[in-house]
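2024-03-11 09:14:02 INFO worker-7 job=invfold-0412 stage=load source=structure_tokens
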């Protein structure tokens, strides 16, 4: 009986993760991302939220899968599912780091390529 209750709780966490993931992919609702959460109100207004919503959607999708597998493992007492959980957990962590770095590089690249008030001469060189 305890396993069933634990599995229900874990399935509920999985379901909530999937809902957050779907809403993130639709770019609706609160943005569960550190870059957004720790940004000032001024930064939030000018921030391009699309890559952060996408990143959060993928991460919450993977978290939902992890909790779904934990729930299945709890019900079936199948130890081999632990390996799938571990693999998806590692993939989730690696994805979170790599995608965060990629987003920051894109932001830095856009800042480097911006005009900062100067005029362009038709090429990529800036005239100030």
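2024-03-11 09:14:09 INFO worker-7 stage=emit residues=128
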């Amino acid at each position: 009986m305890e396993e069933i209750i634990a599995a229900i709780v874990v399935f509920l966490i999985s379901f909530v993760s999937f809902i957050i993931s779907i809403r993130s992919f639709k770019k609706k609702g609160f943005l569960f991302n550190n870059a957004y959460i720790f940004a000032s109100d001024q930064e939030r207004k000018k921030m391009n939220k699309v890559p952060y919503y996408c990143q959060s959607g993928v991460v919450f999708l993977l978290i939902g899968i992890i909790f779904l597998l934990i729930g299945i493992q709890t019900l079936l007492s199948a130890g081999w599912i632990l390996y799938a959980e571990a693999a998806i957990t590692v993939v989730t962590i690696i994805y979170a780091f790599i995608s965060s770095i990629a987003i920051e590089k894109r932001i830095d690249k856009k800042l480097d390529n911006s005009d900062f008030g100067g005029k362009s001469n038709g090429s990529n060189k800036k005239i100030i």
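2024-03-11 09:14:09 INFO worker-7 stage=report msg="The radius of gyration is 20 Å."
2024-03-11 09:14:10 INFO worker-7 job finished
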